[in-house]
Structure formats: C-alpha cells, structure tokens
C-alpha cells in the first residue's frame, strides 16, 4: 500500500533538490496548514511544472478539508494519517475542488495565471488544465509523495522533460532535458516502427490472400499433384534401389501407394477459398471512418504493439525465470501480434485479415501479461523514468536510450526483410497487369496437365515393378 505524504514532506523534498535552497519564504510547523494559493506560488518559485504545483495545491486543500472534518481535539494530522491510512485515503478519493471552502477549478486556474505558472505551458488552455486536475484527483496524486514515479511520469507526459526536473537547475538539468526528450522521441519511434512493421506484414498477408483468391483454384490442386508425383517417384526409386525386396516388403509398398492415393483423393475434394477481403474502407472490416478515428485507431495499435514488444522481446524474457514452454508462448504471441504466420499449406476457407484488430491485440496482451503474472512479475512498463534521485534517473535514461537504439536497428532490419519477402513480391508481380494474371493461369493449367500425365505414367510403372517383383522376376 502506497504511503500518504503530507504537504510539509513534499516541501522538504523540493527544497532538498532545488537551487538555491530557499526559494520561497515558507516555514511550516506541525499542525500548520498552507493555502492552495501559497502552494502554487511555491511551485512557481521552485521552478516546478504546473502538474506538480497543482498536486501541492490539491494536497493543501485536501489537508485543510480533512482537518476541518476531524474537528478540534483531533490528533496531529500526521498521526491520524499514519494510524487511519484507509480513512484518510477514502477522504482524499472523495475530495473535490470547490467543496469545503476550497478553491474551485476556475479559481485554481486564476491563481496559476496570476503567479505566472501557466506562461508558455501546454496547460494554459483551460480545458487541458481541467483535464489534468481531473486525472490527478482520479489517480490520487494529491495524496502521495512528490517523488512518486507515477506522478513524475504523468507530469512528463503532459509537460515534457520539465515535469521530471522538479526544480533542478544548471547544466545537469539542461542535459537531463535533452536526454529525456531523446528518450521520449525514441520510445515513440519504436512504437511507430512496430506499427510500420505490422502494417507491412499485413500488406504481405493481403497479397497472399488476393493471390490465393485469384489462382487458388489451380494452385491448390497443383501443389497436391506435385506432392503426389514426388511421393510416387520416391516409391519407384525405392523399388529400383532394392531389387531383392521380399513379398512382404512389396505388400508394404502397395499399402503405401494406397495411402498416397487416398490422401490425394481427400485433398481433391477440398475446394479453395473464394472469399474476398474487404478492401474498400479505412476501418476494420472495410467500414469507413474519418481522419480523427483513424489516428486514434493507429495510436491504440501502437500502444498495444509497443507493450507486447516490451513483454515478448527475447532480450527481455531472457532475463527472467520463464520455463521453455512459457518462453515459447511469449515468442508465439509476438509473432501472432505482428501477423507473422509461417504457412506450410493452405487450409480450406483460409482468408487473411484485411485490417489489424485492436481487440485481438488486447487479447494477445492479456495472455502475455498472465504469463508474466504466473512467475510473480507484472512486466512493469518502461514508459516511465526510474530512479529516486536525478542521478539515478539520468543513468536509467542513458541505459534505456542504448536499448532503444538497438531495438530500432532490429525493427528496421525486420521491416526490410518483410518488405523484401521474395514470395510476397513475386505474388504481387503476378497480380498486375491483367495479362500477367492470364499468363500465370495458363502456365498453371499447363503444369497441372503435365503432372496429371506424369502421375499416370508413374503409377503404371510402379504397378509393373510390383507385379514383376511378386512373380520373382528382376527389374532389369
């Protein structure tokens, strides 16, 4: 259970890392309360971002509200929170601005504007400001310590590197800003490249599907006749190379021939798929949608793919105590998410997907996370900066950037491999122009007729060899 911190704890923390040490002349003693306005002024003077300043202001308002509810004669607030942690948390979860004589959202916005805190901030827009307060309250950031990693990451996501600096100044802070911005860009690049990789694999899948729809009625029987011809030829070679086969061995060859013929008859009954893919719309299933919906759809795909990549990458799973079966399931899940399906044959009714499915990706992610939970881990996301001190966070960022550089190289190599997939490119070339399609169909028909003729002759030859072998004659 995460500990609740009080305002004096947060101010002490910010003073310990800020330069100069005294940024705002506030001296708190046990039992004192600080107004939300003063908390915002402190944040502005300390160089805090809007998000973390608001966490201070909301904490101030919550403490005042809690003290008011407890009434005179109540124990010191720090003792009450320590002993009655759940009650304090429950009060904090129900706390809202504008209640119990605390400033409303509009009043907090006015205070921030007057203090200069909103200057050049992405939260200067009132709606963005409201959203940050709503999310901060929903995640209880006003209850927890100022160095809570979730609060730091939330501030970074809303206001960039400054959200993680917490008042640090000088050359180190500037270096941190640069490295933090680089990290965010690389994380986004990995997600974008994963989406590009998955889009390319889906493109190959669609080509394979169109190719099968166009040529499958000939290609499937042709591959079956190729296999039949190869199997019968192998039996003929076996009899030729073993002229002294016994009668019992000859009967085994006959049984094998019967099995081959039976399998061929079963395969001939299968009809190739003629189902067409939906290629007319932008959304899943061909349903049209607008640019905003398309953008949201792709962002969700990027988020899901990025998370699956993080939890299934060989380097990541290799550092944990997974069994071979679990490791195999994780690798399979990644390949499924990226639409990499090694195909040895075409199944009846097989039709490739025309669009990635976010619901399918969520199912895959849920499966992956359950595997992590089976070994007692949560597969904690790398989407937030780790470390308590600035030095630790900087070291984590530098190490993470090195990992991301390697991941980007790996994904780019995969994109090139998938884009240059010889089978898909050859199939794509067969689909345009129309005369090329006609040429391929004619070639397949010719090959089909050739194999039918060769199989007939091979069956006659094998039957002759078996007859001669049973009568005791030689092969010659």
Write the layout of secondary structure elements.
Blueprint: H1 7-17, H2 36-46, H3 50-70, H4 77-83, H5 85-94, H6 105-115, H7 126-138, H8 149-159, H9 162-165, H10 170-241, H11 247-268, H12 291-312, H13 314-318, H14 324-337, H15 358-374, H16 390-419, H17 422-430, H18 434-470
Helix pairs in contact: 2-3, 2-6, 3-7, 4-5, 10-11, 10-12, 10-16, 10-17, 10-18, 12-14, 12-15, 14-15
What is the structure about, briefly put?
The protein has helices at 7-17, 36-46, 50-70, 77-83, 85-94, 105-115, 126-138, 149-159, 162-165, 170-241, 247-268, 291-312, 314-318, 324-337, 358-374, 390-419, 422-430, 434-470. With 476 residues, it is an all-alpha fold.
Question: Which characteristics define this entry?
Answer:
476 residues; mainly alpha; 2 domains; 69% helix; elongated
How would you describe the overall organization of this protein?
With 476 residues, this protein is an all-alpha fold. The protein folds into 2 domains: 7-168, no CATH class; 182-430, no CATH class. 69% of the residues lie in helices and 0% in strands. It has helices at 7-17, 36-46, 50-70, 77-83, 85-94, 105-115, 126-138, 149-159, 162-165, 170-241, 247-268, 291-312, 314-318, 324-337, 358-374, 390-419, 422-430, 434-470. α2 packs parallel to α6 (105-115), α10 crosses α12 (291-312) and α10 packs parallel to α16. The longest helix is centred in the middle third of the chain and has 72 residues, at 170-241. The radius of gyration is 34 Å and the shape is elongated.
């Amino acid at each position: 259970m995460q500990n609740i911190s009080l305002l004096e704890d947060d101010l002490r923390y910010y003073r310990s890392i800020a330069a100069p040490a005294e940024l705002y002349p506030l001296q708190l003693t046990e039992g004192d309360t600080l107004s939300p306005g003063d908390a915002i002024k402190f944040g502005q003077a300390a160089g805090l971002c809007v998000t973390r300043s608001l966490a201070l202001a909301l904490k101030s308002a919550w403490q005042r509200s809690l003290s008011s509810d407890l009434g005179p004669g109540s124990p010191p607030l720090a003792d009450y929170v320590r002993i009655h942690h759940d009650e304090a948390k429950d009060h904090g979860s129900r706390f809202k601005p504008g209640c119990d004589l605390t400033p409303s959202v509009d009043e907090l916005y006015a205070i921030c504007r007057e203090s200069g805190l909103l200057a050049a901030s992405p939260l200067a827009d009132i709606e963005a400001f409201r959203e940050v307060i709503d999310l901060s309250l929903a995640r209880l950031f006003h209850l927890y310590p100022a160095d809570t990693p979730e609060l730091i990451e939330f501030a970074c996501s809303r206001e960039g590197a400054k959200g993680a600096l917490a008042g640090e100044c000088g050359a180190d802070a500037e270096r941190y800003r640069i490295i933090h911005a680089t990290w965010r860009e690389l994380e986004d690049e990995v997600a974008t490249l994963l989406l590009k990789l998955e889009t390319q694999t889906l493109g190959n899948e669609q080509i394979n599907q169109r190719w099968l729809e166009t040529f499958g009625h000939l290609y499937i029987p042709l591959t079956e006749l190729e296999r039949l011809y190869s199997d019968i030829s192998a039996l003929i070679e076996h009899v030729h190379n073993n002229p002294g086969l016994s009668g019992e061995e000859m009967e085994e060859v006959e049984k094998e021939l019967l099995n081959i013929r039976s399998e061929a008859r079963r395969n001939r009954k299968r009809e190739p798929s003629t189902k067409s893919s939906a290629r007319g719309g932008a959304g899943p299933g061909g349903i049209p949608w607008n640019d905003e919906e398309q953008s949201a759809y792709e962002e969700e795909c990027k988020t899901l793919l990025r998370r699956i990549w993080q939890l299934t990458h060989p380097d990541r799973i290799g550092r944990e105590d997974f069994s071979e079966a679990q490791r195999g399931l994780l690798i399979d899940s990644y390949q499924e998410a990226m639409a990499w399906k090694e195909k040895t044959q075409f199944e009846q009714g097989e039709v490739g997907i025309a669009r990635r499915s976010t619901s399918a990706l969520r199912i895959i992610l849920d499966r992956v996370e359950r595997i992590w939970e089976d070994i007692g881990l949560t597969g904690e996301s790398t989407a937030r900066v780790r470390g308590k001190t600035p030095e630790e966070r900087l070291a984590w960022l530098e190490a993470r950037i090195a990992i991301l550089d390697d991941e980007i190289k790996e994904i780019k190599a995969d994109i090139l491999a998938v884009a240059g997939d010889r089978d898909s490119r050859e199939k794509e070339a067969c689909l345009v122009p129309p005369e090329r399609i006609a040429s391929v169909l004619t070639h397949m028909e010719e090959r089909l007729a050739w194999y039918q003729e060769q199989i007939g002759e091979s069956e006659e030859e094998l039957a002759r060899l078996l007859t001669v072998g049973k009568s005791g004659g030689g092969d010659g």
